[in-house]
Write a structure and sequence with these properties.
three-stranded antiparallel β-sheet; 249 residues; mainly alpha; single chain; 5% strand; disordered N terminus; 11 helices
Length: 249
Amino acid sequence: MHRKTNVCSPVNSQLGAGREPGAGSADPLDHHRMRRAAGTGRGNDVLPSHMRLLVKLHGQRGWVATRPIAKSAIILRMLDRTHVLHEVMLTTGTTQSELSRLSGVWQPSISQFLSGKVRLSDEQLDRLLSCMGYRLEVIRRPVRPELTRSEWRSWRLHRQLATHLTRSSLEQWRPAIERNLERLRSSVRGQPHVRNLDRWESLLDRSDVPELHRTLTGLDRDSIEMREVSPVGGLLPNQERLQVLQRVG
């Protein structure tokens, strides 16, 4: 089961068409502007597709979307925490300096949050949103990641190998892994592959079994890219390998 921990799916195109109940003015969340913002990919906190999440922003004024949703709430699909902060600031007309005075957070720090230079946690985001009359609600649910057939096959093979991984087996595998790393270094070019080979070597040097388990079984983009230059090929017993490949089809 994979847990959603941040916002990363595109903006819901139906948002912005609603109106505040009992008011004649249009919802200030202009969905055309939001769609453009969603396409920019600002920030460095974008999560993989299998960790998408909905954020429910509880506001003072009870805006609703064109489809019925929880009263006194607006549900946004955003790319990242940076977009959530940016859009609520636009919605409420709050400047960086005003938010700094309200929250006690230095204005340069807010600027770094908005630019994506500094990672913004859910707790920090909720604190800033509270100053503008909103709260952050994170909804977690399991989702099926979007992987290619070869990525699924690689994941299944590495997952099966993970069932054999212990500190003892890692020591038995070490000579073969080191040979594979040396072979890969002679042929692999470009990033992130070269960097990931360094990371494999570091994991091996530290005998970091928990992190190796995560790398073998993870469905985040980082783990997928690590497995693209995996030095553990040939370690899985052939019978188990064939069984996995038969299940994959």
